Amino acid sequence: MLPVTVRDLADIVAETAAAGRRLEIRGGGSKAEIGALVRDAAILDLRAFAGVIDYDPAELVLTVGAGTPLAEVQALVAAERQMLAFEPFDHGPIFGRPAGAATIGGVVAAGVAGSNRLSMGAPRDHLLGFEAVSGRGEHFVAGGRVVKNVTGYDLPKLMAGSWGRLAAMTRLTLRLVPAGRTSATLILSGRSDAAAQAAMATAMRSTANVAAAAHLPAEVNAGRAVTAFRLHGFRPSVEARFAMLAGLLAAMGPVERLGEAEAGRLWRRLRDLSPLDDGQPLWRINVPPSGGCAVTSALAGQGARWLFDWAGGLVWLSFGGDAALVRRAAEAAGGHAMLVRAPAEHRALVPTLHPEAPGVAALSRRIRQAFDPAGVFETGRFPERPRAD
Amino acid sequence: MPLTMPAPDQSVLARRDRIVAALRRIVPGEGVISAPEALRPYETDALTAYRQPPLVVVLPETTEQVSAILRWCHGEGVKVVPRGAGTSLSGGALPLADAVLLGLSRLNRILEVDYDDRIAVVQPGVTNLAVSQAVAEAGFHYAPDPSSQIACSIGGNVAENAGGVHCLKYGLTSNNVLGVELVTMEGEVLRLGGRQLDPAGLNLMGLVVGSEGMLGVVTEIILRILPRPETARAALIGFPSVEGAGQCVADVIAAGIIPAGMEMMDRPAIHAAEAFVQAGYPLDVEALLIVELDGPDVECAYLIEEVARIARRNGATLLRMARDEPERLAFWAGRKAAFPAVGRITPDYLCMDGTIPRRRLPDVLRRIAALSEDYGLGVVNVFHAGDGNLHPIILYDANQGQLERAEAFGQDILRLCVEVGGVLTGEHGVGVEKRDLMPEMFSEIDLAHQQRVKCAFDPELLLNPGKVFPTLHRCAELGRMHVHGGKLPFPDLPRF
Fold first, then answer.
1. Domain named FAD-binding PCMH-type: which ranges (chain B) (predicted)?
2. Is A78 an 8 Å CB contact of chain B?
């Protein structure tokens, strides 16, 4: 179904809910293979809600239709030397498809953030307001169109990362930031995971204002372990901070500066995850930065391969073994694990999102029912528990 | 428009002795305050126009006590109003005659600091400034810095999603909190978020921040701490017109510069501040900007020159760079003392808190000046120019019976903010102060979507009732599709 007006959309949702049927909200479909296979839901395509509604670069605020392609939004703001701080990316390449399908509504609904998330926040930190149709078939607005706003409950914080389980967003107002005028990438070679973790912690404790810090172990990087640090900003500042960081890290191993093209390739591989493209299930594990190594050492020697982003706080893990082992390791490190890519039969058995503590799960359920009492968006894509059979 | 609050439940008032005794069993010793004269300090927060002594005050020292208090009150149908340091400017902690006031001031320990994970785990009664002080030796700070930071508590900051002059660069409270321990009205202890950057499922922690104490009581907070910038440099820039200052702000942003703070004062604010603290402000300008940059020395030195160039291009008639730290602090002294400075030139004042798109500033200031004439009340404007957050301060004299007029003036300013694409409150919260203006910004359907969130956390509406929502809807009624009729009225609240 492809509604073109908010009224169409509201009617479709209300009628489907009244009939006891289900809708799966979709933008470009770039993340359609995440989650359990949905059997009996109609696809609710939001791509007709596209286009720029308001963009005044001096305000650093953009209001845009949720179905607008991400690439279009990025090109629009880049032309004004601005960017989305959370560095959203297209999941297409992770699933072996070309980039270009992802929509801005999709990346915000899925909470997609790249390496910059370490220093610059997640989609929820930059979603100022939205318009949507809830599971009640009602059109509503929340938040505002200005940077600083505490009027009413902060529903944008809830909506970002809610995976289409509460409402179909039609319009988003996003905060933008100036794009760094220059950037530089420093790499440290040959570090073990634990030593890389220590180097990243040292860098993050410094005043080098590191925008992104990641580590590719030798096993996933053609035999050469690389720890990478990215700095953004005005040239004199970037140069001074680069020198300071290089001085700080020099005692830990050989330090070098990557050329622009090479740096671009390196950070792109951390988005498309090509180093982990080995046919095994792909997990995304979010832990406190110091916990990343504990997760991977628990799974080492069982065929797991991995890389670290967010200074160790994000582990991308390729692992074909028991899902329970992954979830236990993530929990032991104080975090959680999401199953991103796996064969359909695997996804039918293993919940994509990490099961929550019972009290939190019950509260989440009540929140979902508040927006969607008939469960029109409860497609079974994100079951709370593993399937019994 | 008189403010009305939920009608006191007579059966609760009649049970007061029993309630006090039950609370004493949960919190022994000095932690329960029931003598009428001892309740006085709790009858208002920083929105002092409204006062109401609470039924009783309880000051727990542990999460377990908080949980036991809430569970007992829930079982007995007794309302609870949480309170941090009582510095809310919107009446968020205003007591109710039939509600237990739950003060979190005794939960005041910093539990843990971890520099490798860059977090501080604190209890809600810790003051905002104490967090920065605790991590200062290691070269860290906690970035949000509301003006009341020596007094306001982190728990209150979480409830109100507090900001501060540096939130232009570092974000509000919600951008700097990773997790909370929350006790629900039923007494259940939940952990939302954690030490990692993102939650596993729905971001319930994000909902709790800024919910004005209505969804649960926060008993532990995991804060992000950051390395303290090497240097801060400030420039003081005077303009012959508000337009010039406004354009300078826009051009600084357009040049890709995000200052740590960018504050504007209008002529009356400059004069009041200068008379009070002798900060060395020029008295012959219409608008004054303080632009502060922080970061590495090299970056500050480079950007301050950029800012100076932009200021000259926009017709600045005064341009002073702080040569040293005392001078930088002097630049800020006047701005930070704006409220007490205004207090010297007027018997009473009301501080408003709307946000507007930056480009609308000259137009909005002109219309505020016109309203000022219409109402016959003076107004002084200080402004977080970088993020469009206005603080018009309305001058009045309560002894001359001007409070109602001042409030009506303030409400017109907030309506104007909404009309030009802005919002009712940028950082002070809705509380009781802006509660009845919510329909200016949100339809009944919008508000119903927010209030159903409240119902998911607290279906009996026992926690901090009478705040944020202009009309109380029973949760069962909200569950139905249409929300007209059957609204509960609020009775009048006496004002002082």
1. 50-228
2. no
Q: Could you tell me if B79 and B98 are in contact, meaning their C-beta atoms sit under 8 angstroms apart?
A: yes
Rounded-to-integer distance, Cα B319 and Cα B305, Å: 11
CATH number at residue B247: 3.30.70.2190
d(CA A116, CA B318): 38
Structure tokens at A142: 């929340």
Contact A150 B454 (CB under 8 A): no
Residue B192 parent element (H or E):
strand B189-193
Q: Examine residue B169 and state whether it is found in any structural domain, yes or no.
A: yes
Cα A340 to Cα A29, A276, B295, B306: the distances in Å are: 14, 12, 38, 45
Do residue A363 and residue B457 have CB atoms under 8 angstroms apart?
yes
Q: What CA–CA distance (Å, rounded) separates B131 from B141?
A: 7
Say how many residues make up chain A.
Answer: 389
Residue B464 near residue B434, CB atoms below 8 Å: no
Q: Are residues B359 and B403 in the same domain?
A: yes
CATH class of A274-342: alpha beta
Q: Give the mean model confidence (pLDDT) for residues B392-413.
A: 95
Taking the Cβ of residue A97 and every Cβ of chain B, the question of whether any pair is shorter than 8 Å is answered with: no
Q: What is the least distance, in Å, from the CA of B479 to any CA of chain A?
A: 8
Q: Distances from the Cα of A120 to the Cαs of A59, A126, A178, A292, A338, in angstroms?
A: 18, 9, 12, 20, 22
The candidate with the shortest Cα–Cα distance to B465, out of B483, B437, B491, B484, is: B491
Q: Please, which pLDDT band fits residue B147 given cuts at 50, 70 and 90?
A: confident
CA dihedral B467, B469, B472, B478 (to 10 degrees): -130
Q: Note the pLDDT tens digit of each residue in A135-168.
A: 999 999 999 999 999 999 999 999 999 999 999 9
Amino acid letter, A119: S
Residue A139 at interface with chain B, using a CB cutoff of 8 Å: yes
Dihedral sign for Cα A269, A270, A272, A278, please. positive
For domain A182-272, give its CATH number from 3.40.605.10, 3.40.50.300, 3.30.70.260, 3.40.50.720: 3.30.70.260
Buried b (16+ CB within 10 A) or exposed e, A160-186: bbbbbbbbbbbbbbbbbbbbbeebbbb
Alpha helices in B278-319 (DSSP H): 297-313
Is the pTM higher than 0.90?
Answer: yes
Rounded CA separation A88/A25 (Å): 19
Please, which residues 7-46 of chain A have a Cβ atom closer than 8 Å to chain B?
A: none
ipTM of the complex: 0.97
Give the DSSP letter of residue A103: B
Record the tokens describing residue B442, joined without a space: 């949100």
